[in-house]
Amino acid sequence: MRRSAITFAATCALVAATLTVARPALAAVPYEDPSLPVATRVEDLLSRMTLDEKIGQMTQAERASITPAEVTQYKIGSILSGGGSAPSPNTATGWADMVDRFQNGALATPLRIPLIYGSDAVHGHNNLAGATIFPHNIGLGATRDPALVQQVGAATAEEVQGSGVDWTFSPCLCVARNDRWGRTYESFGEKPELPVQMATIIDGYQGKGVLATAKHYVGDGGTTGGVDQGDTQLSEAELRAVHLPPFTEAVRRNVASVMVSYSSWNGQKLHGNDYLITTVLKGELGFKGFVVSDWNGIDQIEGGTGFTASEVRRAVNAGIDMVMVPTEWKSFITTLRAEVQAGRVTTARIDDANRRILTKKFEYGLFEKPLADRTFTPTVGSAAHRAVARQAVRESQVLLKNTGNVLPLAKNGGRYFVAGKSADNIGNQSGGWTISWQGASGQTTTGTTILQGIRAAAPGSTVQYNATGAGIDGSYTAAIAVIGETPYAEGQGDRPGSLGLDATDLQALNTLKASGVPVVVVLVSGRPLDIAAQLPDWRALLAAWLPGTEGAGVADVLFGDHNPSGKLPVTWMQTASQEPINDGDGKTPLFPFGFGLTYTGTVESPGQPGTPVASAVTSTSATLTWTAPASGSTPTGYRVYRDSTLLTTVTGLSYQLTGLTPGTTTRYTVVAVDAAGRTGSASAAVTVTTPGTVESPGQPGTPVVSAVTSTSATLTWTAPTSGSTPTGYRVYRDSTLLTTVTGLSYQLTGLTPGTTTRYTVVAVDAAGRTGPASAAATVTTPGGTDPTATCAVTYTASEWGGGGFGGAVTIRNTGGTPLSAWTLAFTFPGNQRVTQGWSATWSQTGAAVTARNESWNGALPAGGTVSIGFNGSYTGTNPRPTAFTVNGATCTVS
What we know:
globular, five-stranded parallel sheet
């Protein structure tokens, strides 16, 4: 989530605006009766709500941009703290007092609907000074310990609740496929099975009464070049195989909310993608919670600054239920209200969003206990929670090199020289998203540095420290260099160039090397670094990731109190030029995915199970059986996968498949797991083909066009007479998907006068299967502008390199007649493709491109101009178009 660089000194204003409203005595209305079913309470409350109250529930503002009085006035449903946004004092009690003031503002509204307060508690309650900071997800992925990760979630939830917060924007279930990405450390690993396994953290959060958020949906870890908020250029099959399984698992665990990604999929911003949000997530996966946007995420749908009415409409209609508008929340409320009143966002969509949000508020008891649960306040930074964090640090350490068994170090009688910028720096070892959004070096919070942990672990040894290595000589038993990255978060953490160590680290290493003392490197980083050139100079290498506040866990491994058991959650590059590098792609790594040493050799994992055998196959079921591995550690269970999606974990050597689809072929593998959570290689795959045929929806009736005006028309059609039962219908203009509706009609708006367009309808069922398109209906709108009207077009292209470019088009009405609507048309002379557009509705058939005005920029007076643009791709050359028309009239070109 992006965070603003606002200075959050606005707390004083917040305190001044404090409300002291006690919750009024409950009236005898059904929604306030906790003995009734949640669904009954939701429907009763929804029936009493005005449009403004419903829009308020869909609005999330940032704490520094709103007062408790405004919460009451605008009936706001949610508030968040951005990264680094905290009250003063930044204590658990300070937080609880602040949240309760906002909550009392909500309870002063006519219907007394409590608000829900969210924060990015992504590795502990990391905005709160003194909270326990756990390892970032990349370290948790290295533990291969789902039970421990659930404990981390539970401990975090207690500290979050103790500060009055109800909702964490965690976990990040991204699958990081390129280490250049600045959010790699937020991922549990590069293969989907790791975030699937570690989704137990959801149970930790929600089991303690804190709503979890699966983010960022979907594909943010797969962008081309590892660019944050970039474009994930994958087929749908690849997207489903690599990036969707963690969200499938999150839905299975009843995650309360899902946050949409800033990124695009094949050029379309996720915040406006109704197919992935509504059809796949809510329909196919059956997600029952609510979908929240990212920080100002809807602003990026069309690429401009701020949000437009079109972006609000597209985001809500795509299926976003709550919109994070940190500062411009008043404008959002006004805009969404106007869109509903104009019929461009239906009341059914508004009710669906509210139903989802209110259901979670009832399920999590906010109506009965809206204020902070201060019984949890003493748990913030408690010894018990720090013990869980220290265990997570121990288990996350991955031993990558140990020449001559230099590790473990002796606790007594040794002479150790500790160097490196991260040895005594709790900010560096905690990384980004710690107290502030990007994090910072230095004493940013309380805890134990790695140096402090080393000194405590070796009381019978001499420990000398100098960050630069100055003062070392040949008398020391070993030198411990704690080096690596300094803190960063999204955007600022992308590294498109070098992934090597910085000059400070290299200088310190050279100083230590010159002493002749064996060098042990502890690498503090959020991803693998390019260290192959320096590795021969090191006797040992321990990947510590970003361990958080409990640096003693690193010392536990260095001095043998814990035998290293971590395994790489990502593939470690030989050189940065190999990026992206992932398991199974044929590239030779420095260290492979899953690698990890112990003090007695390599970590032993279970072997490969025998190939499953399918038997008793029916149209909807089958039985799989397999044999135990012949080598490796003893399995305690077996994970059964359909393609890359985890179906279940069983303790025996068979599994009954049920609910299969007739006439389909599916592929299954089995992976053994031992008591330590280590997994072996997947079995060879077995293919199961069920008898019968897959039934998709039939063909809808040809749409009938009625109520045609110069800018609108109504399409109606009949349901298919054969095939599976449709749950929705996709409406297309030419080949462009306009929307998905559940009924048998659709109102076309924003049409261009005097134009002819072609529409088809496709039925889709609950499994996401689609049938054949209907026959086409043609809509011709009356009126239009003078076809002899003159116009001028300016076209510029900005090259990005690598076959990408941006196009900017300015249209000037050089005629004497104003235009009430416009359609620009041109033909690419090469193989260019429009991948994303803004300020117009763009479509492309072959080389022919059309851009139609949006509702807000259709009026073009004589002499007036309008600017639109697009992102595109090409191979070879990028010649510019030479001829343009507006509403059929030929334009001059400059």
